[in-house]
């Protein structure tokens, strides 16, 4: 199995995936921290959604590293596979790695899609999970199908949060929508370009920018929360001092 991208970009692609993994992991950690402060489950679930995508990036990094570079690990896997006559190469390892990468990515985005909906998780989640697994299986051999599926999910996610923004007019929701729109642009490029084209490389960079915008958002939320805590503490101290003077 091979990935048809320019050979000179292979190392850079792994670096971008790794940076995306770091950004998404930090997003999860900060979301968890904010949840502990405010007890708002939506931020916890949002963080878990991006954690799934972060783990998917890690699976992609590991699989691509073994695929791109001739390592002793690759040779050992190959010997094992040949010994047991499962397949004639290490393709099974690559297929498994990319399957989990796509499955976790789709699950992560689906979880984020469900967040703004008032309807709780029910039996339809199992139906959605079934189609997500099918999509991940098909996506192993068709990256275009995978990116189109992610694109559709992102469009629905953006529509959901736009409806939320129309109600609350919150700047944080607006930034979140902006981040998702950037990801949509990246997925459009992934869906219509050849992996060996320059546009494919731009798509990777755009995707990274989109995740970075979401990271800036959660940092902003935590900073505002921290400032509010300081202000409230100052007001409380001022109130106590005023009572003492009386």
- SS element count, helices: 8
The rounded distance between the terminal residues' Cα atoms is 80 Å
| Form type | globular
Largest sheet: none
What structural class do the secondary elements suggest?
mainly alpha
Q: Could you estimate the helical fraction of the residues in percent?
A: over 70%
Could you characterize the architecture of this molecule?
With 246 residues, the protein is an all-alpha fold. It has one domain. The chain has eight helices and no strands. The radius of gyration is 22 Å and the shape is globular. The N and C termini lie far apart (80 Å). 30% of the residues are buried. Mean pLDDT is 78; it is low at 77-88.
Structural features:
8 helices; single chain; 84% helix; mainly alpha; globular; 246 residues
Summarize the topology.
Elements: H1 10-38, H2 41-68, H3 72-83, H4 91-114, H5 123-139, H6 143-168, H7 171-192, H8 198-245
Helix pairs in contact: 1-2, 1-8, 2-4, 4-5, 4-6, 5-6, 6-7, 7-8
Can you give me a brief rundown of this structure?
This protein is an all-alpha fold and 246 residues long. It has one domain. The protein is globular and about 75 Å long.
